[in-house]
């Protein structure tokens, strides 16, 4: 149908409608219908272009995320948390050096004892310890007798006090009284006084306290010395090394 026929049919439709139409409405409709077809086509193309532009804008806004919607962190490196410094291990306290053991007291510094018996004190040594030397001496505060062994220490040493200076010689059983009124009996087991020792076996000293020292036994591995004292006394005993020896000090001034 041509444009002219379409306009006529439309005019008749408007005229046949019930009610009185607005005088301006029919004029506007006729004016719009009367526009050329090319103009209407231009408006349709412009509308379509506007829709496309609107869609592009919506897409751009969606991608740009203007509403700050949360996005995925996939592929985005996260900042490394600052590592807390590891605690430095506490330094181990250096072990305090162990105090060196006190040196053994020397015969001139040890305390005297007043007990009736010292020992017996046992120690390792050869089957028989051979006496190599016997000596006496007077010192400030004490008198001394020293019995030395040439091949090692004797196995046992014992000292006993007595209220007299009388001793029994073994194996004869003979009694002997030394100078003094008190005494010490020194018994050394695992010893021999006749194989390598050729010195004196009776010392008359004339000291203040230790008046006489005499060997009273050298038999079957037992050596005994009797010591005559001036009055009762306290004493001290040492078993020393280098060389092995037994030292007995009798305290003076008591």
Question: What's this entry about, in short?
Answer:
The chain is built from 3 helices and 13 strands.
Note down, in words, how this protein is organized.
- This protein has about 250 residues and is of the alpha+beta class.
- The chain has two domains: about 5-65, no CATH class; about 115-250, Immunoglobulin-like (Sandwich), CATH 2.60.40.3500.
- It has helices spanning about 5-15, 25-35, 35-65; strands spanning about 115-120, 130-140, 140-150, 155-160, 165-170, 175, 180-190, 190, 200-205, 210-220, 220-230, 235-240, 245-250.
- A hairpin with a 2-residue loop joins strand 2 and strand 3.
- The termini are far apart.
Distance between the termini: 164 Å
The first-level CATH class of the largest domain is given as: Mainly Beta
Q: What share of the residues does DSSP label as strand, in percent? A: 25-35%
Overall tally of structural domains: 2
User: What structural category do the secondary elements indicate?
Assistant: alpha+beta
Please report the number of helical segments. Answer: 3
Unreliable sequence segments: 66-104
- Tally the beta strands: 13
CATH architecture heading of the largest domain: Sandwich
Kindly report the CATH topology of the largest domain.
Immunoglobulin-like
- What's the helix-strand series? HHHEEEEEEEEEEEEE
Main beta-sheet strand count, sense and barrel state? 6 strands, antiparallel
Based on Cα principal axes, name the global outline: rod-shaped
Q: Mean of residue pLDDT? A: 77
Tell me the helix content: 10-25%
């Amino acid at each position: 149908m041509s444009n002219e026929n379409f306009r006529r049919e439309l005019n008749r439709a408007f005229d046949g409608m019930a009610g009185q139409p607005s005088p301006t409405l029919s004029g506007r409709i006729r004016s719009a219908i009367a526009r050329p077809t090319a103009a209407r086509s231009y408006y349709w193309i412009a509308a379509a272009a506007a829709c496309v532009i609107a869609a592009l804008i919506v897409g751009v806004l969606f991608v740009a995320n203007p509403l700050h919607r949360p996005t995925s962190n996939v592929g985005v490196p996260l900042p490394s948390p600052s590592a807390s410094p590891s605690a430095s291990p506490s330094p181990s306290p250096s072990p305090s050096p162990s105090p060196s053991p006190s040196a053994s007291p020397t015969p001139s510094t040890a305390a005297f004892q007043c007990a009736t018996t010292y020992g017996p004190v046992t120690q390792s040594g050869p089957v028989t310890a051979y006496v190599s030397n016997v000596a006496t001496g007077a010192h400030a505060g004490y008198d001394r007798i020293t019995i030395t062994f040439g091949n090692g220490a004797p196995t046992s040493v014992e000292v006993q006090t007595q209220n007299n200076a009388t001793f029994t010689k073994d194996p004869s059983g003979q009694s002997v009284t030394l100078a003094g009124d008190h005494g010490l009996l020194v018994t050394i087991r695992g010893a021999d006084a006749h194989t390598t020792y050729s010195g004196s076996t009776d010392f008359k000293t004339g000291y203040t306290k230790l008046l006489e020292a005499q060997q009273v036994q050298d038999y079957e591995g037992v050596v005994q010395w009797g010591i005559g004292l001036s009055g009762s006394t306290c004493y001290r005993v040492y078993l020393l090394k280098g060389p092995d020896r037994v030292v007995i000090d009798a305290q003076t001034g008591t």
